[in-house]
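## tool: complex_structure
## caller: assistant
## args:
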Amino acid sequence: MEKLGINLPWLLAQLINFILVLVILRMLVYKPVLAMFETRKQKIQESLDTAEKVKADAAQQQKEFDRKLDDARREAQAAAASAQQAAEKERQRIIAEAQQDAEKIRVAARGELDYERKQMVSELRHQVIELSMLGAQRVIGGNLDERKSRQLVENFLNEVDFGPNGQKAGA
Amino acid sequence: MLKNPRLWIAIVAFLAAGILVKMFFPFSAAAVRASVAIAPEILFFIGGFPVSPTLITLLIVLVILLLVSFLGTRNMRIVPSGLQNVVEVVIEQLVNLFVGIAGPMWTKFFAIAASFFILLLVSNFIGLIPGAGSIGVIKVGKETHTQVVNGQICFENEETHECEPSGIFAIADAPDFLTPISLEHANMKARGEEYEEHGALVPFLRAPSSDLNMGLALALVSVFMTQVYGMQKQGLRYWTRFFSFGRLLKGDIGFGLIDVFVGLVEFISELGKIISFSFRLFGNIFAGEIILLIMAFLFLMLPFPFYFFEFFVAFIQAFVFAVLTMAFMRIATAEHGGEGHGEAKH
Amino acid sequence: MEFFPILQAADSEGMRLVATALAIGLAAIGPGIGIGLVANGALQAIGRNPEAAGTLTTTMFIGIVFAEALAIFGLVISFLIGFGIF
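## result:
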């Protein structure tokens, strides 16, 4: 054995050395390094998770934004449409009012015209009677029964009978 | 390549230099014999404890490991840099390796197997540093076996009694506290026996793993811890692996005897593990040292290719020691019942 | 010994050296072949399934080591004889 170099003190020295190495490496290397591996793993997982979440959040927000934009657009459209409708209604109303007014004015004008014509016709008739009376008096000399002749002309005129517009009735 | 004259000049110059060196310092078997020692020799004693070159180197290895592991993990950061990177790469590779061998059991065996690997790797590599194994003190023989001629150590030829120049140089006289002596002679001296000291070169540094004690100590730890883990996992049933009298006691003589025999073989192979572990390491590293030595004595620069090979061997031996420990531990914890598979036979 | 005069002529030191060389030399033959076979198998397997190279390399080393152990025993015996321990 001693020729091979084996002896107890050296063997014990080697054993003690190995135990020292084991303790040193375990304390200084294995524990912290393996713990570090674990921490790093967790950290990477964590950041991956966070990235995933941020991405999901961003997608969610984009969606929300899109939805809001859509809403706004639709609202604006609706407002524009309703405004247009109101304007149309107003236009209609104004037109209708204007037409109504025009009609009213026309009717009023016609009424006045009618009245005036009637007035004129009656005046004309009156004057015709007067004139014819005067003419007849001149012709036959003034003793003419006023009341009777007037009745006569009146009858004649009634026979002729001008329409409201002056034309002969029945013509 | 063949047409490059510079290359030819370099080759011729190299060969000429080699031949010139060999003319002045011829190969001397005595020098090789003086430089090869299977058992590390004792450099000096500290309070009766013999200190060998391998123990000095072992102390250096311990300091290196302590420094590297302290500096590498002093302030660990999530984003590693510098030495922390190196430490983490080594540990991560080991973890991957052991997970491949032992599966989920690796955490239990990791500390021991990884320590084997790291300790042996540094131990093996440190022996390859130029100067380790070749710079040391000359152990002078008692009679005229060793002389110094022109600064060169001469070893007396045993037959012709002529002085052979060795190519080993003595630069100065060794300091007084160095008392190089071989282990065997130290023991004989302690017993008060007569002995005759031979001249030899005792290096200051030598790979710790080229000391059989290291392989033996680590092998003992490995095999012992394998039994401990096996028993932790399987309880007393683990021992039926070696001593299986179950079927013999039940009266089944034929298979009972076979069981007993298989258990015996298993037991012997367990002891054989200690021998093969220790001698594999020792044999490879020691043989590497001798090969480098002989190549150096043979011709200039000849050790160069072998140097690379020795780096490879140094790594492989550390690797194999750790992997085998892991594999044996897994086998010991995974085996059920006393049916030896003979897988540990080697 | 009478049949081998050359061995008779050799002294015990010479015999020891011959035994040393034979011990390791003969012990290296079998493991040499065995390691070759292991490496052969491993390389073929890696060639067929390159993804498994890592596991196969580890297993190959374990196999090589078992074969090598026999050579180690030869080496031990060779040391024991060569350094005069026997």
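## assistant note: The first helix of chain C runs from residue 5 to 9. The mean pLDDT of chain C is 83. Handing back to user.
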